[in-house]
Amino acid sequence: MSQWYKLQQLDSKFLEQVHQLYDDSFPMEIRQYLAVWLESQDWEHAAIDYSLATLLFQNLLSQLDDQYSRFTQENNFLLQHNIRKSKRNLQNTFEEDPVFMAMMISRCLSDERKILSAAELADKMQVGSTQNTGMVVRQKELDGKVKSVKDSVTEIEQFIKNLEDAQDEYDFKFKTLQVREHEPNGMTTEESTKEKMQLHTMYLQLDIMRQEVVSKITSLLFITEHTQNALINEDLVEWKRRQQIACIGGPPNTCLDQLQSWFTTVAESLQQVRQQLKKLEELEQKYTYETDPITQHKKILHDRTLALFKQLIQCSFVVERQPCMPTHPQRPLVLKTGVQFTVKLRLLVKLQELNYKLKVQVVFDKDVNEKNTVKGFRKFNILGTNTKVMNMEESNGSLSAEFRHLQLKEQKNVSRTNEGPLIVTEELHSLCFETTLEQGGITIDLETTSLPIVVISNVSQLPSGWASILWYNMLSNEPKNLSFFLNPPCARWSQLSEVLSWQFSSMTKRGLNSDQLNMLGEKLLGASAGTDDGISWGRFCKENMNDKNFPFWLWIEGILELIKKYLLCLWNDGSIVGFISKDRERALLKDKENGTFLLRFSESSRDGAITFTWVEPSLEPEPHYHSVEPYTKKELSAITVPDIIRTYKVMAAENIPENPLKFLYPNIPKDQAFGKYYSRPKESAEPMDVDGGGKGYIKTELISVSEVHASSKLNTSDNLLPLSPEEFDEFSRVVSPAEIMMYSNCEP
């Protein structure tokens, strides 16, 4: 079942998040037409390989040609038109930069997996049913408020028409009476008195109607202000918080479509009110009197309407997609000098007359006090096109502008010192976006700011930079608090544990379970493990762990990289226990069958390493536990963990090599657990003449071999290592070449 098919089965709240991923640059219809093909390509690799990206780009165009041919056979003219248009757009957008297309598709597929994981978690855990119910109630409540505003505007529109008709009738009768009174044989005194009485009654009715329309507009503006405040101070703030959470790996529930609908409806209603007030001024100019309520209240109503409209427009200008290097889509807000990054703006008020009217400019560190108050604070210039015109996207109609080719360059400062209070990866900066709306004689200045960003000059600073982004967005929601790390607050374990789990679930299909988090909690809190004590920033990222020479976060980051590059399938399958203390490891294996083993991460390797421990019965009450020396990236780049487990050998006391690994914890036969990942036999090499008679090459494969001495009980998990060259020489002396060849040629 394709990933795209699974997505289409989700609830509407998750489908809204999927809609948010696609825009005109890569429309959803292409994702729909080429779902299976897109999911079968290595877009992540193509994002860093220009040749592969170019090849995939050409293949994508060929796939679209094939799809066009199918539509031609079906005589589907509309779909033929759409597919040709999509192909042209892709060529115009990505032909010169296919790597950017690969980055975009890779990011979309990754975000889709995150949405699926969030949906699966919600189904399994049935978590948030109360919260979801609350969200539905909240949405219905706001729907009702916005609808009330819209209905009130419609009602006032009709009332003003009735007022205009009544005033026209009064004006006609008043002028008619004046004409008839001056005619030679005009009205009698009795008729004149009667007409004047009728006119006075009409005047009183007009006055009542004018008072009523002013009252209705006043009430409408009160309701509008209340609704608008809820949108701005509650729903928009909540969305911005959800965006922060999504940036650091949390659930990607950041769809803006519903907010845009509400903002647009309220803005359209305020625009109508402004037109209605103009209409009332026209009626006033035709006819007014001393106590005219229109004359008395028009300025107040006009000013209040305009103030509400300005506030709504200004707050609707948001950063829809935070700054991110396409080369590191899962590490937003960390930018490297000289590397392009993207950022997307959106105006939640979707008015057709604003299309192509707003020119956005990006400014780095605008009005940032830290430039003058923090010693050693760096300054940067923005390279690339720093202005963009907002236009409506065809895919969802949103009014947006996306900067795709921005770069940062540090300003040279000969007087700069490295002795400031902040290290490079703790120094927070911001991007400010400005534009001006001019409409109907009014001018509104719009400005919004990105979340704080970390600027690095070397990719080796990325892990520490990302740690700063995690810590800030976990504990703060004030985008202009760029002095945050001068005195960073502590985090509670309940907060940090959730964020740590997100780091795994955002890159893989699995987060961390309670046992794994408990082990990590012990690493950070020590004797305080199990409590919700505060964890300092230094303890998390800067201070070395216990007897190790590296901090906690860099250890976690190394393991994340190890999983991403070498262990992804095994982690997703749940085959790796991963984080487990030695006491807990022994407790799990103690009563298991001989040869039961589990996979865990090494605690002594900064760059990430994995090992396995198995249990062996003993004549003593306590069984023996054996652990092999951890495998690092160096070993795993040559041979996979499944192949290591398949071919692993221990040279026992009788000098007979055997594989002690039989069952993956708790009791899964190893071939059942790992068989689908075993390397398949390669085709025979080209035969060539050798001294022995031209029988070709002898097939070989890497095998891990460890030596166990009979006198060794190996009750610790640190002594079992792969054979040294000297030990392997001894092994070769005892075991015949034929036996070695037999093991070298073993098939899965």
Key words describing this protein structure:
disordered C terminus, 5-stranded antiparallel sheet, 14% strand, alpha+beta, 748 residues
Protein model, in words:
The longest helix has 59 residues. This protein is α+β, with helices and mostly antiparallel strands. The radius of gyration is 35 Å and the shape is elongated. It has 24 helices and 23 strands. Helix 2 packs antiparallel against helix 8 and helix 9 runs antiparallel to helix 10. Strands 15, 16, 17, 18, 21 and 22 form a six-stranded mixed β-sheet that branches. Strands 1, 3, 5, 7 and 8 form a five-stranded antiparallel β-sheet that branches.
- The residue fraction in helices comes out at 40-55%
Main sheet properties: 6 strands, mixed
Radius of gyration: 35 Å
* Proportion of residues in β-strands: 5-15%
Question: Would you summarize the structure shown here?
Answer:
The protein is α+β, with helices and mostly antiparallel strands.
